[in-house]
Amino acid sequence: MNAPRTAVVVNPVKVPDLDRLRRTIVDGLATAGWPEPQWYSTTREDPGYGQARTAVEQGAELVFVCGGDGTVMAVVSALAGTDVALAVIPAGTGNLLAANLGLNGDVATGVEIALQGGRRRIDVGVCGDKCFAVMAGMGFDAQMLEGTSETAKKHIGWIAYVGGALKHLRDRPMPVVISLDGKPALRRRPRTVIVGNVGRLQGGVRLLAQADPADGLLDVAILSPRNLAHWAALSWAVIRRRERIPRMETYTAKRVEIRGLQPQPRQLDGDLIEPGASMSITVRPRALLLCVPQPAGDPDLAYDSGAAEKAAAERLK
Question: What is the DSSP code string of 86-150?
Fold first, then answer.
C-alpha cells in the first residue's frame, strides 16, 4: 500500500507553537508509515488559496489546514472540485467547520482523524470567487463578527462574540429582496440573512436544524426580530432546539440572491469580507472531500465508509 502524499497549510499568526505543531503532525504520520508532508505558510497577501493549489499541483492527496476561519475558507476554495481530501486542525477562535466536525484544538486528534480514513463528500457554497463550507451571512451576524475584538477572542474564546452581538441588537433592519431559484422574490426587512450548508454556529449553537451538507441544497434563514423581546424569544428557541423559531423563516434553494439598498457587513464561514449591498450564492454539490471522525462529532458530517474504502482502493493501485 502506498501512503498518500500530504501537505500542511498553516497560518503562523494563529498557531502559538509552530515547532510543536510540526512535531506532532510529522510524528503522527511517521508512526502510520506516511511520508513527511510539505509545508506551506500563509501570508497577508494570500491566506491559503495559492498555497493549497500549489500543494495539489505538486501531488498532495491530503491537505491539512491549520488556521482560523479565513485560512480554512481559502483552502476549501482551492480544494473544491478536486479529489484531494481536507483535514482540519482548528486554530483561532471561531473554527466553524471544526465545530461542525466536533473537533477541538488538539493537533494529535486532527492527525488521527485523517489517518483513520473517514471521508465525506459535502457541498460547498460559492459567493464570487470564494467557496464556503459552513455558511454565509449578511447583516447582524457579520456585524457581530465586526464588533468583536481580537483581544477579547484571544482571552475568552467564542464567548467574546456575545459582546459583539450586544452592540448591535438595537440596530435597524435592512430592507432586502431575496430570490430563491428564480421564484417570485421575497421582500423582507430582516436583521440578517444566513445561507447555510451545515447548521452549527459559534459556541455550538444549532441554527439550521434541517441542514444537510450533502443534499445539493443551501438552507436560508431570514431573521427578523424587531426588539429585545423578539431577540430573547428567538435565542431561547434556538438554544432549546425548538422546531419552530419565532421571527425566523427558513427555505432551501440552489441559488440565492440577496439585494439590499445600501452596503451591509457580510461574512463567509465566520470571516468578514468586503461590505456590499448584495450577495449572489450558488451551491456546488459534493465538491469537497472532507476528513471526518468515525463516528463524526456531528451527525450532519457523519463518516462515509464508501468514500474511505474508495480512497484506500486508489492507494492500492
Answer: EEEEE-SS--HHHHHHT--S-HHHHHHHHHHT-EEEEEEEEETTEEESSEEEEEHHHHHHHTS-H
The C-alpha atoms of residue 205 and residue 235 are separated, in whole angstroms, by: 10
Q: Give the fold, CATH level 3, of 6-125+284-316.
A: Rossmann fold (3.40.50)
**Residues 203-261: tens digit of each pLDDT:** 667 888 888 999 999 999 999 999 999 999 998 998 888 888 999 999 999 999 999 99
Provide the whole-model pTM: 0.85
Residue 147: which residues within 8 A CB-CB, separation 6 or more?
Answer: 163, 164, 165, 167, 168
Cell of 285: 454539490
CATH architecture of 131-283: Sandwich (2.60)
How remote is the C-alpha of 12 from its chain's centroid?
20
**Contact status, residue 74 vs residue 45, Cβ threshold 8 Å:** no
CB 164 within 8 A of CB 141: no
Task: Please check the confidence at residue 111 and state whether its pLDDT lies above 90.
Answer: yes
Number of residues assigned to the chain: 317
Return the DSSP state at 304.
Answer: B
The secondary structure of the chain in percent helix, strand, coil, rounded to multiples of 5, reads 35, 30, 35
